[in-house]
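Below is a filled-in request sheet from our internal design queue. Each sheet records the structural input a requester submitted and the sequence that came back. We keep these sheets so that new team members can see what a complete request looks like end to end.

REQUESTER: design group, bay 2
PRIORITY: normal
MODE: inverse folding
CHAIN LENGTH: 120
BACKBONE (tokenized):
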């Protein structure tokens, strides 16, 4: 019921910057969460950053101070500004969207993934 389209991945040198974008469409409830997860080869998918429709943010400790998540609720878009990139940031980055319900449950949706490679 929710479709996610993401873009912005690429190859950057250590210390460089990159911005990811994601747009959501479909059945979007007033209370929801959008954000980014990443998965490196041989590792489990991990949270990078999320932001709720009412402005609450959550960052992984490994990216605090370097990454910034922003939302435009009217356009249903989210971006991730990544600065001071490190080789360990190399991964496939997935946009995530979840509607929140009164029961406390969440329905999660995933983007197609975009490759971010940090290498010299």
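RETURNED SEQUENCE:
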């Amino acid at each position: 019921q929710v479709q996610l389209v993401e873009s912005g991945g690429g190859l950057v040198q250590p210390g460089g910057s990159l911005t990811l974008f994601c747009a959501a469409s479909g059945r979007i409830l007033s209370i929801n969460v959008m954000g980014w997860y990443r998965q490196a080869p041989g590792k489990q998918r991990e949270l990078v950053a999320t932001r709720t429709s009412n402005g609450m943010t959550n960052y992984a400790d490994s990216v605090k101070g370097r990454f910034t998540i922003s939302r435009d609720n009217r356009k249903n878009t989210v971006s991730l500004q990544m600065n001071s990139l490190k080789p360990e940031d190399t991964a496939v980055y997935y946009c995530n969207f979840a509607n929140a319900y009164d029961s406390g449950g969440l329905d999660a949706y995933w983007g197609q993934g975009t490759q971010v490679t940090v290498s010299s």
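SHEET NOTES:
- The CA atoms of residues 68 and 81 lie 5 Å apart.
- The mean pLDDT is 96.
FILED BY: M.R.
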